[in-house]
# Entry
Amino acid sequence: MIRVLLADDQALVRAGFAMILRAEPEIEVVGEADDGGRAVALAEELRPDVVLMDIRMPIMDGIEATRRIVAGELGARVIVLTTFDLDEYVYESLRAGASAFLLKDAKEDQLVAAIRVVADGGSLFAPTATRLVIERFAETPADAPPDSGALASLTARELEVLRLVARGLSNAEIADELVVSEHTVKTHVASVLQKLELRNRVQAVVYAFESGLAAA
# Structure
């Protein structure tokens, strides 16, 4: 059973998502929050597997709430809910540790599929929309560029894998590109995350763009 917490300041939005998710036998909506502070408190209390997080909320926005939930090592993974006119906030949310983001008008099957992927430890980056968001905001240098020393710790093959991850390729696609097994790719990705001290695949993409590796 996948335990989901809904965080959105609009009651109708929460009700809509709850109706969709409660129709899925393997998903349980364990709580609802109408502001970021409440979302953090409920994440600590209810220990959900996935949090659907709106960005613009009172008291505490979704970015700070995401940062606190992820930093608290509660085990919950965050899917940010957004619209295209808020994509700069999406970028900050990904840097804060969100595993994915969805448009609020996403189809029901996309919402359910995203929850399953994230609950299983995955991250959603492949959609073109996500790639465009990362590319757009990676054009602006980060306040604190990634440590070049950490990047130097990667092997040549790990650097190659990181570049392909930044292009939005799945493990299977990377395996085809490099003519290796998918298991080997998974091993390289895990090593990259460990060496760069990153939480997930999405943060690896952000890192690749901010370090300039993705454009190399």
